[in-house]
Specification:
This protein is mostly beta strands. It contains 19 helices and 55 strands.
């Protein structure tokens, strides 16, 4: 064995010797230089020398001569001879140290001064503590230049008070005043512009000059300029093409009808399933938004909606631990509960409107309403359909139980109430949110460590509610060997939330579900019960003696008796091994595993309205005997547990090298992914939280599900299974169906650059998924893209144009995909709890088999321009795109004889096209520390969305409301009935008329064909724009962000026609509604001839209004405290921030002051106080 080992070692030594000899021959061949270059920029000549000798040049951007044209001709000369010839008549000094050549401006004649000169010495280093060679140091007073050597050392003559300017390529310029000490160590920070020149796509980092795709980048510096808990909100107005309108996130419009439309989230190179709102904003180094096929196609079947790539921070400073602490306190305005501002009638107005109606209903209906007294009594005796006190008082007047004076006393008392005010004082409180972040980072020669703690707490602005979240992450990078680097990390998120529990039968959490004239309190100050579904005027006094429970809702106590709590945990593990095989060739193995668990508990205790409803509903009376089918004590506990596990494994090889004028970058890899989700649900009755036990009574839920007869206490039409079992029990038992999927992919891309001018790009990926593939033809999906780029600024004709710093033209075309998990190749069925007829568990077939399922696909063409002009003062991009979606999933109607009426299939198509513009301009720059600066940023995007092929399955007007997709119209189309006035004909007087043909009107338009409906515009904005201005001066900063959305419509102030017996708030626009005494052209409260209500008013053209708006999103004032204030305390930087979010409107286009984002009143403003300390 030793002989074999020696033999192997001997072979390796021979290879090393051979390699060394070849390397030496190569170096010897390159030791002499041959050049023949005429009128070429000096920068190009230096690149040619580097290529021939492997000597690297270091210099700063102060060296303006670097772009001047030179002519040189030399044959087989040594390096020194060439450099002397090159710089002989130039104002440049060179110095050779090792394999580096430092260049600096020739020293100018110093200004003669009688003051004492100091020889200032020091070291220039970066944030990591590494020395920076070639830094230009200029004395502003004497105009004298020097450069730092390869170890960052410098020395320069200066007098006390002189300003020294330190500048270097890729670093922020820094100005320092000379004090009495001659020792001066300087730290330069990386330039944000320089960082943005490297674009991270997740699979690779590539210089901006070589990118052919459409990518928007946001740096950590921009992110830190304003505080948001959700990182998506920080991107608004900064990324052209990104829309977060209405809580829906899209990039370049909607790309699917039923499949996922959210962008794919990638963190540190790997796709994740986590939520955007869980990302710690303090730990983000950069965000790159990938928009076209050239940038996204490498992600394959998850790329159609765009990609958001987030890179987290790494340690930079070497040596000591870098400690950063930040805290923010957000205080929100209390909700505006004024009825008029919220478009509702106040108590006096509502009392008048209802009084007018019931005067008509009982006394002046001219026979249009038959037996109003009997109808009211049926409501009272039935115990259902809440009877308002006004309705009941008029009923008492009509039956001679009270006098007109007594009625007026009731009405006058109700006018004095203000339910919203009482509710707000009792339930709402000022919302306060706090966030704390502590990061500990350390960087040594071989190891860097990043540990971050983030804690957030929020009271949600409501009693007995709130949430807390702890986010802990760790990332380590270890250089195991010169050829191996290991990266590993873990991120854990722990969230606890509590809020009022759901109760469809009490509506206690909806302030606007209660009349304005109601009150929470009795005259003695005690809490007054409220009857939402049930009449509480006289019914329960006769039933409470029979063992039933009063169903009055104690609204305040319900926030303590009925609680829903959620505990959520999300853990992400990731690792990466990077192997450096040869020069330019690396391979890496990456793995990420995510696990999430959530437990949601809905506990309605024994005093809650839910528990009382359950006990009453399942109390039966047969032959005079009362039977209780559920426990008489204790409450209900519903628990839902959900689990998810996801992993992705990737192996990839990368190659990058430059050969003369040719640069090649390529990668190829394999990727495998698995997702699994499941869960359980349980229901316990008779639960006592304090004792942590439940009733021992056996409950037959199967029998309860079949109890279709109304319980004896309620003689109305609401059976127990509909009124209690379905909302409370049915969804609280059983399992959550497991969803398990596996995916496999192979991919590669290639970038070729010639002479730093011309770029050619191509990518290919083939995806496999277990969702599809029953038909082998669709088993794998090839997805690809190509792109070209032209760096115009590197052309010789452009280098002589001083105001062009960067100018690139690019174009791309490619195919990306999307998966719809709701359809499978096989027939699928799901299990349910009980069949109401057999009392047995059963399964229900959900969809038929479809062996021809395949990926949705988008074909995108993109043409773009990137530019930086006028000494980089004007910067931006322009993109034009055309995105065609094919094989989009949609409903397909089937022949009923197949056993199914419809199925999902790849039958639809759509089209998105648009333009995106980004502009940044520096009006004033910070020429020296503390000087005034002003930068404006503008983003603008226009998107036109259209469905080009879909089955028009809607057969009538009502169906079109729910299924609005039609060929030639956008996916968010609004369809409306056409208002034709108010009828004055006998028998239908006061009823609303609708056009069913151009000149034909009818009071009933619901069951008509779709041809009667009118297209009213789209609900998603066509135009999204952001305007941001940032000012700085003497440590102060002011940042103002504005957002504009336009080109879309909304339905504003639209409700179902209000029935005369409805017991809730009434919209203020009914004040001028039609009544017999006030015959206006506004649809009225109820139909004055019927108590029916219809869909038409809510979805009519009279409720459609323009939704465009311009808002100031936030105003941020920051202040960096002067270093002298905390010098010697160990603090490196201390800054303060005050921010106002959501100030009042700047401009609304609609004429009714409705906020298009809430369809009501604007969200309250918040005031944020922040502190950041760096140690």
């Amino acid at each position: 064995m030793n002989k074999k080992l020696n033999c192997v070692l001997t072979k390796h030594r021979l290879l090393y010797v051979l390699f060394f000899c070849l390397f030496s021959l190569g170096v010897a061949a390159q030791s002499n230089i041959t050049l023949d270059m005429t009128n070429k920029p000096l920068k190009e000549v230096l690149a040619a020398i580097t290529q021939a000798t492997e000597y690297k040049f270091v210099y700063s951007d102060v060296l303006k001569e670097i772009n001047e044209p030179v002519t040189i001709k030399c044959i087989n000369q040594n390096l020194t001879s060439v450099l002397n010839q090159l710089f002989g008549d130039k104002k440049i000094i060179y110095r050779i140290e090792g394999k580096n050549i430092a260049l600096s401006p020739a020293t100018l004649s110093p200004v003669v001064s009688q003051e004492k000169l100091l020889l200032v010495k020091g070291v220039v280093s970066d944030e990591a503590g590494d020395p920076i060679p070639g830094v230009s140091i200029r004395n502003r007073s004497s105009n004298k230049f020097v450069s730092s050597d390869l170890k960052g050392n410098f020395q320069i003559e200066a007098k006390e008070g002189d300003a020294l300017i330190f500048s270097s390529i890729g670093m922020e310029t820094k100005e320092v005043k000379v004090g009495k000490s001659s020792n001066l160590n300087i730290t330069l920070t990386t330039s944000i512009t320089f960082l943005e020149n490297v674009v991270v796509t997740g699979y690779q980092g590539i210089p901006k000059e070589r990118v052919t795709g459409s990518i928007s980048s946001v740096s950590s510096k921009k992110i830190e300029e304003r505080y948001t808990t959700n990182i998506l909100n920080n991107l608004e107005g900064r990324v052209a093409g990104l829309s977060t309108y209405g809580g829906k996130t899209t990039i370049r419009g909607t790309s699917s009808l039923y499949a996922e439309t959210n962008p794919l989230l990638v963190i540190d190179g790997m796709p994740v399933e986590g939520k955007m709102q869980d990302i710690n904003p303090y730990d983000v180094e950069s965000i790159n938004v990938l928009k076209d096929a050239a940038s996204t196609a490498i992600y394959g079947a998850r790329a159609s909606n765009g990609i958001i790539v987030i890179t987290t921070k790494n340690a930079r400073k070497k040596g000591k631990i870098d400690i950063d602490f930040s805290t923010n306190l957000s205080v929100f305005e209390k909700k505006n509960l004024d009825y008029a501002d919220n478009f509702y009638m106040n108590a006096g107005q509502q009392v008048k409107v209802e009084s007018d109606y019931y005067e008509y209903y009982f006394f002046n209906n001219n026979g249009e309403i038959s037996n109003p007294i009997a109808a009211t009594e049926s409501h009272i005796e039935g115990g259902t359909n809440g009877i308002s006190p006004i309705h009941y008082a008029y009923y008492q007047l009509a039956t001679n139980k009270i006098t007109r004076d007594q009625l007026n006393n009731v009405l006058n008392g109700l006018k004095k109430n203000n339910f919203a005010k009482e509710y707000g004082e009792a339930i709402y409180k000022r919302q306060v949110r706090q966030q704390y972040n502590l990061s500990l980072r350390n960087n040594s020669e071989k190891f860097q460590s990043n540990l971050i703690f983030n804690y957030r707490t929020d009271n949600n602005g409501i009693i007995n509610g709130g949430q807390n979240q702890l986010n802990i992450s760790y990332k380590g990078v270890y250089e195991v060997a010169p050829w191996l680097t290991a990266t590993f990390g873990i991120n854990g998120i722990y969230n606890k939330a509590k809020e009022a529990g759901y109760d469809v039968n009490s509506n206690h959490t909806n302030i606007w579900a209660h009349p304005a004239y109601e009150t929470l309190y009795k005259s003695d100050g005690s809490i007054k019960p409220y009857y939402y579904w049930y009449n509480g005027n006289q019914y329960w006094s006769s039933k409470s003696e029979e063992g039933l429970y009063d169903l009055g809702v104690n609204i305040i106590n319900e926030f303590y008796n009925n609680i829903q709590s959620t505990d959520r945990q999300n853990t992400r593990y990731h690792g990466n091994l990077l192997f450096k095989l040869f020069k330019g060739l690396t391979t890496n193995i990456q793995y990420i595993y995510e696990n999430e668990h959530a437990t949601t508990k809905w506990h309605a205790n024994t005093e809650s309205h839910v528990a009382r409803s359950i006990r009453n509903a399942y109390t039966t009376l047969e032959d005079g005997k009362i039977t209780y089918l559920t426990p008489r004590t204790g409450g209900m506990l519903r628990t839902t547990n959900t689990d998810g596990s996801y992993w992705t494994a990737r192996g990839q090889i990368d190659y990058s090298n430059t050969f003369g004028k040719h640069t090649v970058t390529a990668l190829a890899g394999l990727e495998f992914r698995q997702t699994k989700q499941n869960g359980t649900k349980s229901l316990v009755l008779g639960y006592d939280e304090q004792l942590q036990n439940s009733s021992t009574q056996t409950i037959d839920f199967g029998s309860l599900s079949q109890l279709t007869l109304a319980p004896y206490y309620m003689l109305g039409t609401y059976p127990a299974n509909q009124f209690v079992f379905n909302p409370y029990f049915r969804d609280g038992m059983g399992i959550i169906l497991e969803q398990f999927h596996r995916y496999g992919s192979g991919y590669a891309n290639f970038t070729y650059t010639y002479d730093e001018k011309y770029n050619l790009f191509g990518s290919l990926r083939k995806d496999y998924a277990d969702v599809y593939g029953l038909n082998s033809k669709f088993r794998g999906k090839p997805l690809w893209s190509v792109g070209v780029g032209w760096n115009i600024h590197n052309e010789s004709f452009a280098k002589n144009i001083s105001w062009i710093n960067f100018l690139k033209l690019r174009a791309s075309y490619g195919v990306t995909g999307n998966i719809y998990q709701g359809a499978t190749s096989y027939m699928t069925a799901s299990s349910t709890n009980f069949n109401q007829y057999t009392n047995q568990p059963y399964s229900e077939v959900e969809s038929p088999a479809n062996p021809n399922l395949k990926w949705e696909q988008s074909r995108t063409t993109n043409i773009g321009v990137d530019y930086s002009l006028a000494d980089n003062r004007l910067r931006g991009t322009i993109d034009l795109y055309n995105k065609v979606g094919k094989d989009i999933f949609s409903n397909k109607t089937l022949d009923p004889t197949t056993g199914f009426t419809s199925m999902f299939a790849n039958i639809a198509s759509m089209h998105n096209k648009g333009v995106e513009i980004t502009v940044n301009y520096d009006w004033f720059r910070e020429l020296k520390p503390g000087s005034f600066s002003w930068t404006t940023g503008l983003t603008f995007s226009y998107n036109q969305n259209k469905v080009t092929d879909v089955e028009n399955a809607s057969t009538n007007a009502v169906e079109l409301i729910d299924n609005p997709y039609r060929i030639g119209y956008p996916t968010s189309a609004l369809w409306s009935w056409r208002f034709a006035g108010i009828s004055d004909e006998a028998g239908q007087k006061g009823q609303t008329l609708w056009y069913i043909e151009d000149d034909v009107k009818s009071t009933n338009a619901q069951n008509r064909g779709i041809s009667i409906m009118e297209y009213s515009g789209q609900s998603e904005p066509k135009i999204v724009s952001g305007i941001e201005n940032r000012f700085t001066w003497k440590g102060f900063s002011l940042n103002i962000m504005m957002a504009y959305y336009g080109g879309h419509k909304m339905r504003a102030l639209s409700e179902l026609e209000t029935s005369g017996v409805q017991y809730s708030t009434i919209a203020s626009y009914f004040i001028n509604a039609w009544t017999p005494e006030n015959p206006t052209n506004t649809p009225g409260i109820g139909r004055y001839g019927s108590t029916d209500s219809g869909w038409e008013p809510r979805y009519s053209d009279i409720s459609v209004r323009d939704a465009a708006f311009l808002k100031v999103r936030n105003i941020v004032i920051g202040y960096d405290l002067p270093e002298k204030w905390y010098k010697g305390t160990g603090i490196n930087r201390l800054s303060l921030r005050f921010q106002i979010d959501n100030p009042k409107y700047f401009w609304l286009k609609n004429d009714v002051s409705v906020d298009p984002e809430t369809l009501g009143i604007r969200n309250p403003s918040s005031y944020i106080f922040g502190v950041n300390i760096n140690l």
